[in-house]
Structure formats: structure tokens, C-alpha cells
Amino acid sequence: MGISNKKHGVRESGDVSGSNITDDEMDLLPMFCQHEERTLLSCGWVNGITHVSQRFIGGAKDFRTALCKYAIEIEFEFVYMKNEKCRVTAVCSIRESKACLWRVHAFLESANNFFYIRTLHDEHTCGAAVRLESVNNFFYIRTLHDEHTCGAAAHQYGLTIMYNHAWLGVEKARTTTFGDFSMSFDEIRWYMDIVMSTNPGFRHCRPLLFIDGAFLKGKYKGTLLTATAKDGDQGFFHPVMAIVDMETIDSWEWFFMHLSNILLDERQITFISDRNAGLLKALPKVLPTAYHYFCLQHLNANLRDRFYSPSFSNTFRSRIVFLFSSCAYAPIMECFNQFLKELQDEGKWIVCRFLSHLPYDKWTNAYFKGQKYGEMHLNVAESFNSWIRQARHLPTTKMIDSIRLKIMDLMSRRRE
């Protein structure tokens, strides 16, 4: 066609070489590649909150959605001071610590049910911004989950992702809700585990795991499920944790399914828990051969609540709890039966009804078939929850990093 191969840097052998391309020839590339510059489709979110009197036809929900997208794009965090159907007020999350003046207030106009911005201080004086990339990504995952298709998500967000990869991400993300967040995050789940196969310390601990759930106190709520063990010095050893929406059968079943996959040793594991309803049904379904013991401290509290009435004195309640604990600590069946008869004689029908839901092999030494090495309470799990109390106030990803660093520091000091 009158065009030399050398001019375009293609040798006769067919291999590509850029050694003969000059600067002038490089300038011709836009002629053959006239695509417009690609931009993120989320860039428009910056116009979600712009001025006083701005209206939101969808009411409070429409306003909160725009506000959340705006915060993600501007890269800052906010908290609601008021969050009602008729009015919403939000301020910068570090308003108190940094005296940031950013604030927005919107209200409902009863005449048309539109939401209008009444006041807006759109300048951050805190001098800091917190990027919420993880929240942005979770929003994409949630969209894929709802639409059951990648086409609509690709059109709306500019994502290029295979359908099977999208569902793999949804399944792998399978545990924590981030609260309402005004963007329907209630089915997003995310988990993090410290795998025992890469952290073999649990093999040197007794085959005993204390299972517990703790509420998260940050913006996105949720529940932190933990499995904690004891090391040789009676200190807690933390092998696994997960973040879920709440302690449901499905959440506990998912938790035990992943836990069973990383219990590599052949030892029979004993679990001690606070007798959560979802846990009671999930554990035997996933780990049918595992032993399960109920925390005596929680049982004592539950029994004491049964007698929490002005007609019962504190002395009588303490006596009932003492007899119940004596039943639990009894080493042989003869001693157990003796204390049980006294307990039933004094507690009458209230005690009998309470015991009807407690299999003897779940809370007594005399009937328990597994090995729990003298452990009767969830003190280890409670100690761990107290140890991470401050971290439970952080956003989810920051909380995980904080806990991970605390565990790393603890293990390092123990090794030294």
C-alpha cells in the first residue's frame, strides 16, 4: 500500500519493535485512538450536596443517599446528629476533636414531601479527610447482589466484571452488615480470619475454644464473633474472628463452617459458649461430634433472673444459685443427684421449668462427656472483648487492623 513496515516499527519477521518510532510519529497515535478520557462514574457524586434550598424529591431517603455518596467522593466521614423522617442533621465525624465546622441540615416540606437543605456549612476546618474506599467497594458488591446481573452494574458504575467473579465476591464477602448507612447495606457481609494453619500456636493450646459475640459500637454496627483459646501461661490465644450482622443461625453456621476448615489437628474440640439461640442450632449442624458446654456464669445469671421478684429475698436467690452451682461442680452423679434434689425442693416449679431446657451433659461435670480442663466460664472471651473495647468503636476495616496489630504486638512480647 506504499507504507514501509520500518516506519511503524514492525520488522519483516513480524515481531514488534519500538526502536524506530520517532517523537513525530508518536504524535499520530491520537488519530488512531480517539477515545475520550475515562473518568470514574462516581465523580458526579460531588454534586450531591451543593447549596441551601437544594431539593430532594425522594424525601429523607433520597437526601441520605446523596449525602453518603457525597461523603465518599469528598473523602470524609460524618455522623448524624438528627436522623428522622422529617429532619436530618449531619456533622463532620471529628467535629469535637478538631472543631470542624462542616454541617448540613435538611427538613421535610409537608406541602410536597420534598426534602430541602436549610443550612449548609460546606467548609472543613479539621484539616483531615478519611478515605472510605472499602465502603465504596461494598456498595458495588451490594448492587451486584441485588440485581443478579453484571450488565446493569457495568452500565451504572463502569465496572467490567464477569458474572461468576461477581457472585464469587458476594459469597466470599458473606458476613457483616454495615448498618443502615442509608444505602441498603443490610445484607453485605465481610469477614476476616487469622488462619490457624499459618499460625500453628493453637496446636500447642488445649483443644478448648471459648465462643462469644460482641456488639460493634461504631457507625456501621454489626457483631464480632470470636473463638478464643488459652495458652500455656493461661493467657488468651486468639485464633479466629468474624464480623456478622447479628448472632443468627445463618451467621453462626457460616462461622463454624470456616472454623471447621482450619481446624487441622485431629483433636476433639470442646466449645464453651453463652448458649446463644443461633449458636445452639448451628454448632451441632456443622460440627456434630464437637462437645459443647454452657458457661456457668451466664446460667447463674439466667436463673437469678427467674427469681427477680419482690416476693423473693436476696438471701433466697443466692441460695438457689449456690445449689445450682453445686450441681454443676459436682464431680460424680451421686453428688449431683443430692444437690439437684435440694435445688428442686427449694426452687419448686420455677427451677424445674428452668432445668427442662438444660441437658445435663451441657452444664455439669458429672455428665459432661468431653474434656474442658476445669473451665466453667467464658472469662477468657470476656477478657478479650474488654481488651479490644476501644477498637470496637472504629470503622470496620480500621477495627480489624487495630485488633490485628494488638495481637501481633502481644505475640511479639510473649516471644521476647
Features:
5-stranded antiparallel beta sheet, N-terminal domain of TfIIb, 4 domains, 39% helix, alpha+beta, 416 residues, 14 helices, elongated, disordered N terminus, single chain, 10 strands, 5-stranded mixed beta sheet
What features would you describe in this structure?
This protein is of the alpha+beta class and 416 residues long. It has 4 domains: 43-121, N-terminal domain of TfIIb, CATH 2.20.25; 133-172, no CATH class; 174-292 and 392-416, no CATH class; 296-376, no CATH class. Helices cover 39% and strands 15% of the residues. The chain has 14 helices and 10 strands. It has helices at residues 23-26, 29-32, 59-74, 95-98, 133-147, 151-157, 163-172, 249-262, 277-286, 296-306, 314-329, 333-355, 379-387, 396-415; strands spanning 55-56, 78-83, 87-92, 103-109, 114-121, 208-215, 223-230, 236-244, 270-273, 291-294. It has a 5-stranded antiparallel sheet with strand order 1-5-4-3-2. Strands 8-7-6-9-10 form a 5-stranded mixed sheet, sandwiched between helices. Helix 5 crosses helix 7, helix 8 runs parallel beside helix 9 (277-286) and helix 11 (314-329) packs across helix 12. The protein is elongated, with a radius of gyration of 30 Å. The model is unreliable at 1-26, 128-149 and 170-198 (pLDDT under 50).
